[in-house]
Amino acid sequence: MIGVAGDDAALAACEARLLPMATGRFPMRLANHAGFHSPLQAPVAAKGRAALTPGLFRGPALPLVDGRGQAWYPLSTDTRALWDYTLGHQVVAPYDFTAAIRTGMHEFAPEAVIVLGPGTTLGGAVAQSLLALKWQGLSDKAGFQTRQETDPLVLSMGIAEQRKTVTG
User: Fold this and answer.
1) What interhelical angle do 141-150 and 122-133 show, nearest 10?
2) DSSP letter at 88?
3) Mean pLDDT throughout 117-144?
4) How far apart are alpha carbons 108 and 135 in whole angstroms?
């Protein structure tokens, strides 16, 4: 999926060009979205940098993976670089969800991926990323669905039964 950011006029022009090719619900506007992860947020990033000094940042308690696919580790994080990413790239540049999933899977090889939410919408994106990686031999939707029935790889906190599996 590709996100497009712009003011109302730019989005209207984009929709006018895309709608003849669109099927179903795409393109769609995200409610209450303000061009996050785009250069439109440069003023917000500047305000954040002015209000939050690098000295306020500490290394993470647990490893983190950012929207470029870079891992940040508790004992080796350059907190100035983390501040710079958090109030810079993360705010004004696209978030590469697939890169984040790829790094998380390769670095930590989890038994399952827990999708916190909101809702269940990220489950499909996680599944598509895992299929692109051919994670544990998964290569198509049918194979992923079969795996989910017997040994779930993706657990969503937005699905009651899966939430029980996570929380016991």
Assistant:
1) 110
2) T
3) 91
4) 13
